[in-house]
Amino acid sequence: TPRQSTIRSLSLSPTLLAHTHEPTGATESNRATVRATPRGGRAGAMPLDGGGGGAAVMFLAYAALAVAALRAVLSYKSAAHAARRLWRWADEWAQAYQYYEVPRFVAGGNDGAENPLFRKAAAYVASLPSLEDADAACVLSSASKSNDFSLQLGPGHTAHDAFLGARLAWTNGGECLVLRVRRHDRTRVLRPYLQHVESVADEMELRRRELRFYANTGAVAPRWASAPFTHPATLDTVAMDPELKTRVRSDLESFVKGRAYYHRLGRVWRRSYLLYGPPGTGKSTFAAAMARFLGYDVYDIDLSRAGTDDLRALLLDTAPRSLILVEDLDRYLRGGDGETSAARAARVLGFMDGLSSCCGEERVMVFTMSGGKEGVDPAVLRPGRLDVHIHFTMCDFDGFKALASNYLGLKDHKLYPQVEEGFHAGARLSPAELGEIMLANRGSPSRALRTVISALQHVVAPRTSSAARPPRLTSRTSGHLDESNPAAEESQSPGAGGGGGFGKDAPMREFKKLYGLIKIRSRKEGGVVPVDDTASANGRGSDASTEKDR
């Protein structure tokens, strides 16, 4: 229009633009842009409302969102997961599979018996690492333990597993579990895999289940009263010779793994131990540690409350994977209540290796005695009835250090030399006595050690040949773990070494004996009162006899 051409030909200043009024009826394009020709310049377009800047911001925002979405889609983890799913789908489409259902109930209904394989397979599937990658899983918590969570496969979903190079999958079908195996792998993998599932499930059940302690009530029914077995003793905390502890641990592990070996030999899968020694030396605690190590229930049988028939019935009522404990066997064999020792020995022999003892496998039988083996019928102690003999003696200095480490957390102390002198002088304390002293003084290790030194000074150790030997819990091997006979060992010549696997300890015993006597004599010559007078303990009060012994 003529008006528009007039505006375009003007050279407008900012002041003039500020006072220029928009004509009535102007179009949207005229309102947006006014073409001005600066002095000496070309005509151009000048934005008046900033619309171009807003479009640029919007463009950058959309570009950022697109980059973020592309990065999320093309991330390594997402791409790898998508590739795995695509490969799995292609593999499933190309392969032929065989499906096996494991029903929950044998009869197919809720009234039927439960299928043991279903329970074990469910426990096994719940332990698979691939369950965390499943599309759906149920999260459960334990009623007895806090912060103990477990996963279970969700209904209709699948968890994958691998065994012997074959890929398998479990699917939760509600009242059944469906195992999927490739057809060309089923003959090679199926049976070994199911055995593997049962083995792993059994091990998990042993670790999780609560151990029980059973005691015979003497009544006809029920024969056993039970309670949770909460004894905290373990093989690691028992104060014992490290070498013997290692050998016992190895023997127990070999027994647990030796089912096929025992069956090949035609022997009952059973192991028996004899723990003997003075009271307070830790026999019952060691039996509890064995049960804790094996994960077995404990059946404590009181022989005085059961007759011959009751013993058989009690044995038949015990479960596999159990430790059967019979304490104070020597006291029972001495007779009483109108029974002779021969009658009681015959009853014990029938209990040990009668046919009723063969009705059940994977059992460990532990017998304890508070005295020596001299007054016991040799038929009871022979190999086959009692396979492993372990002698528990009073504590020596090595045993004291193990107890001090457990009770007081001590590895060394300035009072240890005085304690060692007391033990070398012949004084002996039981592990129970030392444990009570340390427990009562656990707040002050120095006070506990001074109390131990005082107790050693008041103990008169008998200087018999059996007591002169170091009371380390060692054993000798002659086909089985056994502790040598003290009387027979003393009757042998010093150079014979005891005639067994641990005869090399004889020179060390003589050296310790000589060392103790030298210590005593040196203190006497220096006017120091000894910790223990060896000569008076042996009933030999003269210096001449002491000099003769030295």
UniProtKB/TrEMBL annotation:
Region (Disordered): 18-45, 461-506, 525-550
Segments traversing the membrane: 55-74
A matching Pfam family: AAA
Domain of life: Eukaryota
Residue span, AAA+ ATPase domain: 269-396
UniProt entry keywords in alphabetical sequence: Membrane, Transmembrane, Transmembrane helix
Example of a GO MF term: ATP binding
Family of this protein: Belongs to the AAA ATPase family. BCS1 subfamily.
Official protein name in the record: AAA+ ATPase domain-containing protein
Organism: Aegilops tauschii subsp. strangulata (Goatgrass)
Lineage of the species this protein comes from: Eukaryota, Viridiplantae, Streptophyta, Embryophyta, Tracheophyta
